[in-house]
Amino acid sequence: MGVFDVFSKNKEEKLEQGLSKTRNSFFSKLSKAVAGKSKVNAETLDELEQVLIESDVGVETTIKIIEKIEERVAKDKYINTEELNLLLKEEIIDLLVESKTEYFSNIGPESTNKPFVIMVVGVNGVGKTTTIGKLAHKFKAANKKVILGAADTFRAAAVDQLTIWSERAGVPLVSKGMNADPAAVAYETLEKAIKDNYDVAIIDTAGRLHNKVNLMNELSKIKRVMKKLIDEAPQEILLVLDGSTGQNAFQQAKQFTETTEINALAVTKLDGTAKGGVVIGISDQLKVPVKYIGVGEKIEDLQIFDRVAFVEKLFLK
């Protein structure tokens, strides 16, 4: 049993509801593409390519999927349109980078590798602070001792929002207010986490500075300072993306992977968009696993991403 199994109740139902707009849009287009056809041919594949691109899967990933299906069609000689869904599901699941969550079982009172430090990055407005609050709630619900660090000190709203979420999740927050040195906040957070034996420390960071160089320097400084206390820190650098922005989310992801070493993704606001296909393209193109998805506004509506369950719900008729 994993750390987050404690809040898996109704997860399947929430995932199904959260992907309803994407699923309905995708299937209506897919149905039109195969309508009246008895087998998959070049024309079908051309129309399928258009469907995937319009579903925000992205051009490069779409081409990859189409080429794989072309290979299967050529090899098997005859594939009918009924089998197309199954082929699509298999290819999409293979493209999604699997998230390794085994280390969660090592987070706790018996662990020598703690606190587990998560540094959260992402542009303003994507749901970064909300994701931190929800994540803190999940860890706490799993009986983990959690502390937050308000190192996004360039916006007063960021510190205020994180304060609200820390209170909502019932976890302590280290804050030095607006315009404080972000690295100093991160250092103080880890100091307290070590001293008071916390399991998890989640550090918020600035979403945007004046330019990419400034942002890169700031994030690098925060990491250097944390490593003075914990060699491995941060064990996770989590990039939060707004799924409703489609290909804009992909462009943000590319920029942040150039800025710092992202090793996990959280895609938010999937319940309010038909652009959920962007999850597939981002994971495939960046080779970074999607670890969490947001499928609702409630504090419990952050889920660990399950690539098989995601694809199954996407293709649910």
Q: Assembly state here?
A: single chain
* Main beta-sheet annotation: 8 strands, mixed
**Mean pLDDT value:** 86
Helix proportion of residues, in percent?
40-55%
- The helix/strand class is alpha/beta
Supply Rg: 21 Å
- Show unreliable segments: none
* Portion in beta strands: 5-15%
Number of helices: 12
- The helix/strand series, from N terminus to C terminus, equals HHHHHEHEHEHEHEHEHEEH
Q: What overall form do the CA principal axes indicate?
A: elongated
Give a description of the structure.
This protein is α/β, with parallel strands linked by helices and 317 residues long. Helix content is 50%, strand content 12%. The chain has helices at 11-18, 20-34, 42-54, 59-76, 81-95, 128-141, 156-169, 182-195, 212-227, 247-259, 278-286, 307-314; strands at 116-121, 146-150, 173-174, 200-204, 236-242, 264-268, 290-294, 302-304. It has an 8-stranded mixed β-sheet, sandwiched between helices. Helix 3 packs antiparallel against helix 4. The longest helix has 18 residues, at 59-76. It is elongated and about 65 Å long.
